[in-house]
What we know:
This protein is of the alpha/beta class. The protein has a seven-stranded parallel sheet, sandwiched between helices. Strands 19-29-28-20-27-26 form a six-stranded parallel sheet, sandwiched between helices. Helix 23 (711-723) links the parallel strand 28 (692-697) and strand 29. The longest helix has 19 residues, at 787-805. Zinc ion binds at residues 571, 573-574, 604, 606-607, 609.
Amino acid sequence: MEPVSGPNDPRMVEVAVDARIEGTLTYLFPYGDFPFLQKGMRVVVPLGKRKVTGYAVGFPDASEVPQDKLRPVIEVLDSTPLFNETMLEIFKWASSYYLCPLAEVIKTALPSGINLKSKGVLAITDKGQSAILKPKGREEGHKNASSLKGDDLKLLEYLAETGEALPDDLSSSLGSIPESRVARLVKAGYIERLQKMGGPRVREKTEKEVSLAARPPGEEMKKLRRRAPERARLLDYLGQNGPTSFSALKESFKDPGRLIRPLTADGTVTVEDVPVRRDPFSRPLQMSPPPEKLMPGQEKAAGEFIKALGRREFTSFLLQGVTGSGKTEVYLRLIEAAFKKGLGSILLAPEIALTPQLICRFTQRFPADKIAVLHSGLGPGERHDEWWRIKRGEARVVIGARSAVFAPAADLGVIVVDEEQESAYKQDRGFMYNGRDLALMRAKREGAVAVLGSATPSLEARFRSGIEGGHKRAVLDKRVDSRPLPEVEIVDMRSGGKPAEEEDDGDRDSSGALDRVKERDKLIGSALISDRLRKALAENLEAGDQTILFLNRRGVSSFLLCLDCGSRLVCPNCEVSLVHHESRSAAKVDSFYGEPGRDGYLLCHYCGYHMDVPEVCPSCRGVRTAALGTGTELMEKTISVEFPGARILRMDSDSMSGKESWFDCLDRVSRGRVDIVIGTQMVAKGHDFPGVTLVGVILADLSLNMPDFRAAERTFQTLTQVAGRAGRGEKPGRVIIQTFQPDNYAIVHAVSQDYEGFYAREMEIRKAMLYPPFCRLANIRISGRSPEAAKRAAQLLGRAAKSAAGLKAFSGKTKVLGPAPAPIARIRGKSRWMALVKADSPACMGAFLRVVLERYAGKAPPGGTLVEVDRDPLSMM
Ligand code: ADP
Ligand code: ZN
C-alpha cells in the first residue's frame, strides 16, 4: 500500500472513526508532516470538540464536503500499517454484513493491548539542540532562527531535557500547545515526530499468599474460637491447607482481608506477594509421539486437503469425524504441508478446548518460535507480543480462540475451525460476528483452504456440505485403530433411576461415613446417582480405570431443581433461574421483596427478586428439590463419602481458579493420578484422556428445556461430545446417561451415536418451522431503561419492519416475528424486546435490515432505547 506521493499540498484521507457513526469520514492530512501515513495506520483526528482515534482506510481523490471545510489529521500513531489490503476488505465486508461501524470491527480485530505501545512522540533534532545553545540571531543568517520565540524555546529546552515526550505530557507541563506550533517547529526542523514502539508494559504478575506463621497455643485457640470464630476457622484452614492465595481464601471466607489484618499484626500469619506463572502452556506434557501412519480415512481427507492447498484456490471442507477419529491429526498434516510451502495457518478452537494437550501436539511438530498462541489467559502485553510475532512473519502457525481469525498471518494457506458448531465462536455484543463464518470469508479472500471440523456439525454446516457450491465433505467414521465407540445406556430418572429388579441392597460399606454428611444432602446427592451408575462406578474403580461424571449445568450459578418432575424455579420477573444461596452473599438483593432468610434463599441475579427455599416443588408438590449448581460440589461430597479412597477431582468454573490449576488438573488426569473427575462443560470438550472408560451424565435434559430452537441440537451435541470422552484408550468405554426424558429424539439419537439420524429428524422440524438452515435469521434487539420507551420503540420498529416486508423486493422473501418481549424480558434494569427476522438469502436479509433501520431511524422515540442487530444469532435469549 503505497502512500500517495506528490507535492506538499494537503491530501485527503478516509478515516474510520472510533465513535458511534455510520460510515467513514474524510480528513485532510498535511503530506509534509506525515509522509509515512498509509492505509492501516491509526490516526488521531478532531471530531466536534473531541479528539478521537481512527483508522486510515483510504486516500480519496474527491470528497463530498468541500476541501476547505475538512479538518486536518492531528497525529499518526503508527509507523507501520496494522492491517493490509486483504484484511481491510474483510473488515469492510464484516462491517456491512453485521451492520457494525467499521472502526468497531477493526478495533475488535486488533489485539486489545495495541494501544499500550506505539506512540507518536516529539523529540528535539540536532538543529534544535544547537538552536537553544546559540543565542538568538547569531545562527548564520538562518531565517528560521529568528522565529524561535520564548515559548518555542521553552518547548525545545523541555525536549532537550527529557529527550522526548508525548504531546500530551508536553501540554500538561507547558500548557496547551497548538498543533500548528508543533507543525511549524517540525517543518523548521527543530523537532521531529517519532513513532515509539516501546517494550510491552508487562509486569510480573503476582498474587498475595497467606500462610500460617505461628499457630496460637491451645488455650488461646479456644478463646479465639469463642470470641472470633471466623478468625479461628481461618487459622484452622491455613493449618490444614498450607499457604493459600488470597483469592482462594475468598471462596471460603466472606471477608478474608478483615480476618487477616489483626492476625498479621500479631505475627500469627504472614502475607507475601508470590509470582504467578503466566504461561501455563509452556510446561511440557507427557505426550505420545505423532503417529507414523495415518488411518485410511485420515489419509484420504488429508490428501484431498493438501491437494486443494496446492491449487492455492479457496476450497472449504467439512471434516465430519466421530470423537477420537483423528481429526486433529488431519489438521496437523495439512498445516505441516502449508508450513513446508512457507504459507501461514490459523487453527481456531473454542477457548475451552485450547488445552495444553492441543498446544503440545503442535509444539511437537513445529519449532516453538514459529507457533503463536492467542488465548484469553494471556495478559494484554503478551497478547500484543504474540500478535506482533505473527505480524512480523516470525510465527506462521497460529492457534487461538475466536478473534484469532483476524491474526495478521501473511500468505495464509489454511484456516481450520475445530468444533465449528460451538457457540463460543459467536461474539454476543458489539461486533456480533461469528468466527467460523469470518474464517470462511477470510479463506475465500485469501485463496486458502478452510476446514470446519466436528463430530456433530451444526445443521448449517452439514446442510452446506450437501449442496452445490457448498463445502466438500470428508468423513471419518471410525475411531483410530478401530477402537469401538463407547456403549451408551440410558437410565430413566422418573423412577428414581432404579430398575425394578435392582433393589437397593443397603450394604454399601461406607455407611458409617455417610453419617457425616448432612441428611438432606445425603438424600439429594444419592438421588442424583442411579444405582446403575453407582454400580458401574464401583466396578470401574475396582478395575483401576478412570471415570468422568458430567453435570450439564448452564451458567455458573446454582439453581433449584425438582428431582421428581425436573422443573426449575425461575424468577417471575426475568424468567431466569433463581440462584440458590446458602447464606447472605454479596449479590444484590431487592429489599422490595423483604429481607432474605438467613439459612438459604433463592435470588434472581438480574433483578434482585428473592424467595425462601420452598419445602415442596411448586409444580408437583414433590419434596426432593436440590440446588443443582452446587451439584458438582455436592456430587463431590457424596462420591467421596460413598467411595472413600477414590481420588476425586472437581473441574468446574468454581473450582478452577485459573488456567494454571486447569492445566494441573488435565495433567493429573492424563498421568492417571485421578480416579473420578466430576465436572461441567469443562470436561466435555476436546480433551483426550485415554484412561477414561466410564462416563456418567448426571442429568441429560437440563439443556433441553431452553426456549431456543437449537435446544435439541445443543443437547445432542453435548451428549455426543461427553460420551466421546470414554474409551479413547486401549480399553472400550461405557457411557451412562441419566434423564427424565428418555424418549426425546435428541437423547435417543445421542444414545445410538447416530448423527445422521438426528440430522434427518431435526431437518424435518427446521423445515416445517422454517428455521436455519432453511432461512437466514437476524434478531433485532431493543432495550432501554424505561419499559414504556422500550415498548414504544419496539412497536415503531415492528411497524417499520412490517411496512418494509410489504415492499415488492421483500414480500414473500422475508418474515418478521414479533416484536415481543425477549425470553429474558428484563436484565439489569433494562427492558428487552426482540423481533426475529427470517429471510430467504443473506443478500435479501442485508437489504431488508437496512431498509428497516432507515425507516425506524426517522421515528425513534426519545428516551435512549438501543437497537442492535444480531445477524445469524446463536442465542435467542
Ligand atoms: P479427534 O480430534 O477426532 O478427537 P485426535 O486427532 O485427537 O482425534 O486423535 C485421537 C487419538 O488418536 C490421539 O491420541 C491421537 O494421537 C491418536 N491418533 C490419531 N491418528 C492416529 C493414527 N493414524 N495412528 C495412531 N494414533 C492416532
Ligand atoms: Zn429477576
